Amino acid sequence: MNSLRETKQHFYIFDILRVILILLVINLHIRIITYGSVNFFEQFTWYAVPLFIVLSFFLGSKYFLTEKLSWKFVLVRSKRLLAPLFFWSVMGFLVHPNLFSFQNFSLQIFTGQVVNVSLYYLNLLFLFTLLFWGLTIFSLSKRLIIYLSLFILVFLLEYSSINYTFFAKQIFPIAKTYGRFIELLPFPIIGILFAVLNKRKKMFLVIVFILSTLLFFISYAWSKPSDFHYSGITLILGSIFIFSLSLLLSPLIGKNIVTKLFSLLGKYTFGVYLLHFILLEYILKIFPFLIKLLSLYPVNAFICFTSLCYILCMLTDRITLQKLSFLFQ
What we know:
By secondary structure, the protein is mostly helical. Helix content is about 70%, strand content about 0%. It has one domain (about 10-325).
């Protein structure tokens, strides 16, 4: 999603990946909001946010791989993350005015989980940006040791259930967002390390792809720790498998009519992600009878609603002469 366009090289495969991931997210949220039946594609949805984070840090790696990165980068990145957080939070409270209070608004900005609950992604991206910006004071070799240490720490906290036990006792918004902070911490590292790997011989990517594939299937024999949806070695290995495959396929996918369409759709994935949840709640609040209709015709509902989200993002961006593009791209 929001990568800040931090690289001149364009990976058309990433546009395709973004679109697939946002479709998985929308599919899940339509089912949740309309109380529909679980469908086949939901099992893949939990790869969406991890891979969005991997993408963001892969494309921003030229900054995170430097030493003593300027604080100006943090200011630019903060604007790109916190301005949409504030705007879409306000939209959320307009749809749910009964939830508005100073305490709830503060909690929303702090967690992104009171209204328009998809916004927690922005909170976590902001925190990951601060963390990995801070780590640039160390040399790259020391950072690699820190990255490995963070991986080990995450596994210890997850498989000992310390992370889940601690945050499960907190209020729901804090538990969901900051319990997921620990679970999603490996994925910025994966994005940065893939950027390093991508500059080397393709054979290294092939080895990573093969190993991650084998270990991914083996990992199904291991029990999954209690979590907030994003813990466990299987999710990490699956994400590595998908991303390494994407990088290997990237040279085969060039610019053409199809990839240009995916580029357009991929560009607005960020806005669709931030808009879709609160838009669906707003529509169903005005027309509650649609809940049953959407449950009866899930495929039609999915196609129509996804199209509506994209149209609204593109149309609003054009009407505002792209002055508010940071809310949609």
